[in-house]
Amino acid sequence: MDNNVLPKVQTGRTFFDTLGSLYAPDSRVQANALTVDGVPCVRFTPESTTKRSIILYLHGGAFVFGSIRSHTAMVSHFA
């Protein structure tokens, strides 16, 4: 593997995570970290809802880009 690749990937990850701060998470949604069967997860719960329904969001970053830091705001607005 090219020794120059890893620093470029790390730089890309850092930049991508900053994109999550471009707008604020929905203040009416609470984010709680939990572990499900050994997998770290985050549950986003709105203050109120009229239906008993859920959205299961699975981030497909291919273990390269994106994290909870880059996607918290976006997913909070889904909730």
Describe the structure.
The protein contains 2 helices and 2 strands. The chain has helices at about 5-20, 70-79; strands at about 30-35, 40-45. A hairpin with a 2-residue loop joins strand 1 and strand 2 (about 40-45). It has a two-stranded antiparallel sheet. The chain is α+β, with helices and mostly antiparallel strands and about 80 residues long. The termini are far apart. The protein is elongated.
Number of helices: 2
Mean pLDDT: 86
* Estimated share of beta-strand residues: 15-25%
Question: How are the strands ordered across the major sheet?
Answer: 1-2
The biggest beta sheet is recorded as: 2 strands, antiparallel
Low-confidence stretches: none
Gap from first CA to last CA:
41 Å
Helices and strands, in order, run as HEEH
Number of strands: 2
Helix content: 25-40%
Structural shape: elongated
Radius of gyration: 15 Å
Give a quick summary of the entry.
With 79 residues, the chain is of the alpha+beta class. The protein contains two helices and two strands.
Q: What's the SSE blueprint?
A:
Layout: H1 5-18, E1 29-36, E2 39-46, H2 68-78
Antiparallel strand pairs: 1-2
Keywords:
single chain; 79 residues; 32% helix
